[in-house]
Amino acid sequence: MDTESTGKGRPTPKRKVSEAKRITSSLAPVVTKDQKRAAKLISRQDRTASRAAYLRGDESALPARDRGPERRFVRNYVDSRRSIGEYFLPIIFVVLVLTLIPIPAVQFGAIAIMYGVLLIAVVDGIFLTRKMRKLITAKFPQAATKGLGMYAWLRSTQMRRLRAPHPQAKVGDQIN
Fold it and tell me: What pLDDT is attached to residue 157?
């Protein structure tokens, strides 16, 4: 039998066509560009809604590190007071500008201010941590205080308008 004369009766498909057949599964639904666009829009709206809920402080939208009545109490307590830590970033910016001035006394003073503010922020964090442990054990006797002091201190070092979730308490509010 002559193999040259029989042939397969059709031309060999191009590589592009063969790879496309292999990659697209027959079980996968056919999705049009309009369907993809609509799915992207819905996904974007869902993300926007969940981010807004997170920033509002909705318990269901919070990550595990921010959930619970103890953490809410800590956030409200920290947000009801001012701390030097929340001004650290703007102070660092001023120090950066002052170090550009070519006068050694100004540069030294700026760096001294930066280290002084850093030291005060750390001391404030230590006192805040101790106070939070006492308040948490008084208000929530069954709750563990592990990590709550650091949570409070880290939140107190963030600029107020950049905190997430957004502050629920105003400065000066009494938190009990």
Answer: 94
Distance CA 143, CA 137 (A): 7
Q: Cβ of 13: how many Cβ atoms within 10 Å?
A: 11
Residue 129 carries which side chain, given as an amino acid letter?
T
% pLDDT > 90, the chain: 76
Question: So where are the chain's domains?
Answer: 13-56, 66-162
The token pair that represents 133 in the structure block: 């442990």
User: 175: closest CA among 75, 65, 56, 55?
Assistant: 75
Cα separation, 62 vs 50, in Å, equals 9
Q: Report how far residue 61's alpha carbon sits from residue 35's, in angstroms, rounded to the nearest whole number.
A: 28
Mean pLDDT of 6-30: 79
